[in-house]
Write a structure and sequence with these properties.
Layout lengths: L1 E2 L7 H9 L4 E4 L8 H12 L4 E4 L8 H5 L5
Parallel strand pairs: 1-2, 2-3
Length: 73
């Protein structure tokens, strides 16, 4: 589980974990606290990886426990 997966730092741990053979659940609400166009490009690039699952805008207001239902932690 990587939070902020589409932001400035998040794609880097996602790439590393994927390269090591892990399945990654990336989470990012895609807010405008960081360039939204860049976030969307990062998210699209990561979504192309078979072992990557992305959860985005629908997370706003979602309880953390519900998000963790999709993660093997």
């Amino acid at each position: 589980l990587v939070t902020g997966a589409a932001g400035f730092i998040g794609p880097h741990p996602c790439d590393r974990l994927l390269a090591e053979g892990h399945e990654v659940l990336g989470v990012d609400a895609l807010t405008d606290t960081y360039d939204p166009a860049l976030k969307e490009r990062n998210a699209e690039r990561l979504r192309a990886r078979p072992a990557f699952t992305f959860r985005g805008e629908e997370l706003l207001g979602l309880p953390l426990a519900k998000l963790l239902d999709d993660a093997d932690v």
